[in-house]
Amino acid sequence: MSRTPLRRVSQGSLFAISASDPDTQSPGLGFLDAAISEFADETEHLQANVEGIRKLSESLATFNESFASWLYVMDMNALTVDWPQAPNSASFELARRRAERDALAAMEAMRRTEAAAAAAREAELTKTMEQTEADITYAGLTTTNASVPSAKTKKKPGKPKLTAKEKRERSIEIEKVISCLPLEFRGSDPNLRRNMEGVIEGLMNAPNQTVKLVTDLIQPPDLSQARVNKCLIALVNRKVVQKNSSTGTVLYHWQGI
């Protein structure tokens, strides 16, 4: 078995240096005190430099975070404050004009609706008046043709005698009915109001409060047939009087309020 021969101690080894240094007072490595002291000083300088680099790194990290936050705030400010499409005075003026235009359009539509409703009511009223006049004409012709000069002519029933209390109650009821009628019957035309009161009293005084002939309600010279027709149409429209022509004869039955 071969062995590697030991190498000769190098002349630059620690032992050789220790043996050749005459100033060495102690054997061993005592000559390294100065070198180690210098090495310790350099190590302290290195540690101080490393500590400075660490503090610089921390300062850079703090600066980077603060600078990034500032950039983020500037970006958000640009997105929220510096908005080129934000409303200005012209935008508010346009919005005001648009609102006025929409309000005018709504009012115009409401006027058209009211005009159409009024036209429909007028047409219905005209139709009712024409039908009533036709019924009255037919009833008058029938009565004229069927009447006998002396024996078969019916006399209008006289007004029933009422007590003071009944007169007051009837006056109150007539006032309630007239208050529900259009303005022209409520005092705008005193003659028309008086005619309406006469028609209402005639309906109340009729047998079973039902009138078969419109002529029974005529009271010349003020309460003519045209006035009676007008009053009956208003009462029928307010459903105070019920008009029934199912039997072939037009009947007006008092309903009241």
From TrEMBL:
<dbReference type="GO" id="GO:0042729">
    <property type="term" value="C:DASH complex"/>
</dbReference>
<keyword id="KW-0493">Microtubule</keyword>
<keyword id="KW-0206">Cytoskeleton</keyword>
<keyword id="KW-0137">Centromere</keyword>
<dbReference type="GO" id="GO:1990537">
    <property type="term" value="C:mitotic spindle polar microtubule"/>
</dbReference>
<keyword id="KW-0159">Chromosome partition</keyword>
<dbReference type="GO" id="GO:0044732">
    <property type="term" value="C:mitotic spindle pole body"/>
</dbReference>
<feature type="region of interest" description="Disordered">
    <location>
        <begin position="148"/>
        <end position="167"/>
    </location>
</feature>
<dbReference type="InterPro" id="IPR013962">
    <property type="entry name" value="DASH_Dam1"/>
</dbReference>
<protein>
    <recommendedName>
        <fullName>DASH complex subunit DAM1</fullName>
    </recommendedName>
</protein>
<keyword id="KW-0963">Cytoplasm</keyword>
<keyword id="KW-0158">Chromosome</keyword>
<keyword id="KW-0995">Kinetochore</keyword>
<dbReference type="GO" id="GO:1990758">
    <property type="term" value="P:mitotic sister chromatid biorientation"/>
</dbReference>
<keyword id="KW-0539">Nucleus</keyword>
<dbReference type="Pfam" id="PF08653">
    <property type="entry name" value="DASH_Dam1"/>
</dbReference>
<comment type="similarity">
    <text>Belongs to the DASH complex DAM1 family.</text>
</comment>
